[in-house]
Every structure is written in C-alpha cells, then in structure tokens.
Amino acid sequence: MDEELKEAFEGSIKKWEDIVNGAYEPHPDCDMCLYVQTEDRNLDCNSCPLSGPDIGCCNDGYDIWSTNRTIKNAQAVLDFIQKRYKQAIK
Asked: For the chain, what is the HEC assignment?
C-alpha cells in the first residue's frame, strides 16, 4: 500500500471515529474521495477502496448515515472502513 492510500484510509477512519464519538467537525470532503479523485488518478467511486455491495461510502453506508445520522449507522461505516483497511494492509 502506498503512503498516500494509507493516509487516506487513516484520515477516513479518524473522521468516522470522530462522528461516532460526537467530536466531528465539518470536513470538506472524504479523505478517500480526495485520494481517488486527484488529477493524476481521476478515478470514480467504483474505483474507491471503500465502494462495495455491502456497505461503503458510495451509495451505501454514507447515504444511510446521511439520511439517518445515528451513532449505530456511523459505527457501521467506521467498522466497514476499518475492515477494508485491514484487508488492504495484508
């Protein structure tokens, strides 16, 4: 895993930990979105390491949380990101 991807995962995890802990401060964008959508990568959400059929940021977990901002829904997103991070570092 390259250092930029690692930082994107860690930034995303921090964001969702803050949401779960009630310490979230508005963030201009998701760290992973910023990683995926840089000019040199120019990828879409389907290329994001967090997109997926079960839960993820694109059209899944984030959408559920954004329409029903509960700790349970935020925790589900955080758990998913942490799972993907662990898979990526293997």
From this structure: CCHHHHHHHHHHHHHHHHHHCCCCCCCCCCHHHHHHCCCCCCCCHHHCCCCCCCCCCCCCHHHHHHHCCCHHHHHHHHHHHHHHHHHHCC
